[in-house]
Specification:
The chain is an alpha/beta fold. The chain contains 22 helices and 22 strands. Helix 17 crosses helix 18. About 1% of the residues have low confidence.
Length: 591
């Protein structure tokens, strides 16, 4: 009898465990695809804590389960378009009493900051109060709050002031490579095509110095003009203050007119409560940008006609691409799908890429040309639209670029290292056995001979000629003029307009409004009457989870003095040797 009781208990236990397993599985997979819709109070403050959001190009909808296991301290991704739309909604929303901007710790590219600041400026012009507070002002974290009605700064000493103007850091490794026995042969066209200089020089070339000095000067000129204008001073005055290191302590910012008041935390909270119309900060209700965007920025599903934002982001690579890369094959298929969708009346081609593989760029360009033959394709440039990024987009109906965009870099190169010296230093012998004279040309175990160098140079020259020809055709320019402004040189968006490779300085929203104007739709240029859709489609919940496991951990040397060296070596992949690229290899970190 005891045996049967025990057996029955086991069977019941297994049955109950199975039921629980099914229920938990349903709850798990339900959580993957669902997330509670956020709500907001009837009156509140839009809290723009920039340390808690990351402005990016395109976001994927984070499944609830992923959000649960994801580090809660990580910034929430908000696309630039959603962020700008949210600010636009807030400007007209009577429920938003004012916008509270906390810029410290901002995470965004320069173009993203530019577009976000423009949106804030328009909100202020529309009458929505903006209050900003900073403790550690830097180029980016002062550029944003300078647009506010009131800029408050901590009265506490010890903060870090780094409002010093823009700068970048380039690394040159020739001496290091010589020491370890590596020789790099660089084949390129374009005196400004600095891609690869990292590996063949120990100092910067004069051409490279010139292009980056003028590039930074152009971008800083735009930023400085905007900051100075917002604070009622001349750009010359602001530059003088910065050059003479007159901004060291909080009192300096107040004295020079860059902030309106120095406050303690209690003092700041009292001001925020007073502006809200209550006595205590505890009674001030707020909503974050990420939550407000989810509530207010929703597609107009009732609209019959669509404008597609086609995001081309990351290094252009052959095949499908992964982890932020732009695959020539996979992205071409996405472009073809958009072309076949009859409900899409116009396309905004949002490019944020430093370029990459020539053949992948050609595939994408061919599909964009087919798309353009059927519907308007308007280009909008983010942080980068350089080399291959410019290759795929220069023939669009119209090109909008942010002033801070890095574009152009019309040039090509190939790099082949000779690592035989390394083997000699570690006393390892090698032997090469070939059927033909040049079979081991790409073995990396010897330098190229003069015939092989000529062979590679001919390939580079042919692709450069093709590149300049398609730019001349796409922009309505002569080949000679394109060659003059090309040579691998990188330009800012502002200078791009001046030399004719860009049509106008403008944001993603400007490009969308233009697309609505030229599209053959029923609702004209009013974007509210269109359904705005994004491509490529965001990953599914399971794809997002799998990608989490496939992402590489950040190198431990990042954030140290060795970071530039690590990045430089990671940019060279041995299986790419001998290929010709239209790419910026050293993407400058502008600080």
């Amino acid at each position: 009898m005891k045996f049967w009781k025990t057996t029955l208990a086991v069977v019941v236990g297994i049955f109950i465990a199975s039921i629980l397993s099914v229920v938990l599985s349903l709850m798990f997979f339900g959580a993957l695809g669902s997330e509670k819709t956020p709500t907001m109070p009837s009156e509140c403050v839009l809290d723009l804590d920039m340390s808690k959001i990351s402005l990016c190009e395109q976001t994927s909808e984070m499944p609830a389960f992923v959000s649960m296991i994801r580090d809660s301290d990580l910034p929430k991704e908000v696309s630039i378009y959603d962020a700008v739309c949210a600010i636009e909604k807030a400007a007209a929303d009577p429920a938003i009493k004012y916008i509270y901007l906390r810029p410290d710790g901002v995470s965004a590219g320069m173009a993203g900051l530019e577009e976000f600041r423009i949106a804030l400026s328009k909100a202020r012009e529309a009458g929505k109060p903006i209050i900003a507070y900073t403790e550690n002002p830097s180029n980016g974290s002062y550029y944003l709050p300078s647009v506010a009605d009131k800029v408050y700064m901590t009265s506490c000493r010890g903060g870090m002031s780094s409002l010093l103007g823009l700068g970048t850091r380039l690394t040159f490794l020739k001496d290091l490579l010589d020491a370890v026995g590596v020789k790099v042969q660089l084949i390129r066209h374009g005196k400004y095509k600095s891609a690869g200089e990292t590996f063949i020089r120990n100092t910067i070339s004069e051409e490279n110095r010139l292009q980056y000095k003028e590039l930074l000067g152009s971008i800083w000129g735009t930023w400085c003009d905007q900051m100075a204008s917002s604070r009622g001073m001349s750009a010359e005055k602001l530059n003088s203050i910065i050059d003479n290191l007159e901004l060291n302590f909080p009192a300096d910012y107040l004295e020079k007119g860059l902030v309106d008041s120095l406050v303690t935390l209690d003092g700041l909270q009292a001001k925020l409560a007073s502006l809200y119309g209550v006595e205590s900060i505890k009674d001030v209700k707020s909503v974050s940008l990420s939550k407000y965007a989810k509530i207010k920025v929703v597609p107009n599903y009732r609209a019959k006609d669509k404008i597609a934002i086609l995001y081309a982001e990351g290094e252009i690579v052959d095949g499908k691409g992964q982890n932020g890369q732009l695959g020539g094959d996979s992205f071409s298929k996405v472009v073809a799908d958009v072309r076949r969708d009859s409900t899409v009346k116009a396309v905004v081609f949002r490019v944020n890429s430093p370029g990459g593989s020539v053949i992948a760029s050609e595939k994408i360009k061919n599909e964009i040309d087919l798309l353009k033959a059927e519907k308007p394709v308007i280009a909008s440039y983010g942080d980068y639209a350089a080399s291959g990024g410019y290759w795929i987009s220069n023939g669009c109906t119209r090109i909008f670029s942010d002033a801070s965009t890095l574009t152009g870099s019309i040039g090509v190169f190939s790099m082949i290292p000779d690592i035989s010296g390394v083997y000699g230093k570690v006393h390892v012998g090698t032997a090469s056995i070939s059927t033909n004279k040049h079979s081991d040309m790409y073995s990396l175990m010897r330098p190229l001979d003069k015939d092989e160098l000529a062979y590679m140079q001919a390939s580079v020259e042919d692709i450069y000629e093709a590149f300049t020809a398609l730019v001349a055709e796409g922009r309505g320019l002569t080949r000679d003029y394109v060659d003059e402004i090309a040579q691998g040189r990188v330009w800012s968006g502002t200078d791009g307009v001046r030399i004719g490779i860009v049509d106008q300085v403008g944001t993603l929203t400007d490009a969308l409004e233009y697309a609505a104007t030229v599209a053959n739709g029923e609702n004209g240029s009013d974007l509210s009457g269109w359904q705005i859709v994004s491509y490529p489609e965001t990953p599914s919940a399971m794809e997002e989870i799998m990608s989490m496991f496939g992402r590489e951990d950040k190198d431990e040397l990042y954030g140290t003095v060795f970071e530039p060296v690590v990045k430089a070596f990671k940019a060279v992949k041995l299986d790419n040797c001998g290929k010709v690229f239209a790419r910026m290899t050293e993407i400058p970190e502008i600080r």
